[in-house]
Request: fold
Amino acid sequence: MGEFRLPSGRPEVEAFYHEDTGSLSYLVKDPDSPACAVIDPVMDYEPHGARSGFAFAERIAARIRERGLRLEWIIETHVHADHLSAAWYLRTGLGGRIGIGARVARVRELFSDIYGVPEDFLDAPFDHVFADDERYRIGNLEAVAWHTPGHTPACMTHLIGDAAFVGDTLFMPDAGTARADFPGGDAGMLYDSIQRILALPDETRVFVCHDYRPGGREVRWESRVVEQRANVHLAGVDRDGFIARRRAIDAGLDLPRLILPSIQVNLRAGRFPLDETGRPWLKLPVDRL
Reply:
């Protein structure tokens, strides 16, 4: 770990599971104050009728109100391709600052071309972009944002006290690791990012952004670093072996069901693009992905 100093503290963590997308959102509270953060909030979206809603996000909001908490941060671990963000909804109703990794600019560049629109169409109204290794606080709770690319070029792991919120970089140990075949993804970088996480102390809590319940088991979202070292995609392989394994798996995967609406909305921190009359709309690039 070199000179790196781990953040101190042990946050209270409450998980919310979004059944339709297999996504997990987290309410993270400073144990010594009413300050809290929400990580990776999910918007409800039905693609066939292009209908959006916020019943799931409202469960989180209701919990914050019920406990009398103060929302300081709404954090996106990366630009999600499999669900739409409810960050703007929570910010509008409860305040707080929406934060994402500074390398979101690279994702914007990649998808600006795919969507065939001016770059300012994809300008994201994030309140804060986290620099690599930037330290911040949730109330009195220490946190640091780590750049952990591979799944996307802008992925970040947020170390909040003794908890690591890893986004899609790792799933539960029996479910493996993130895909690395999206624009800007890289299996070798993913392996290096995972090794950085696995160098954390054994008992560091690891919270994942998705659980697809392999074998039909009950949903899970929390493990320990010591358990992740036995992750099924890492077992018995070195870096080259992992890259070969990841590429073989990715070759058989379909695109996420919600990738086309997700990227447009999530690059705008949870807001839909607007047409010339000010109404929300989406663009569907044909044969571009």
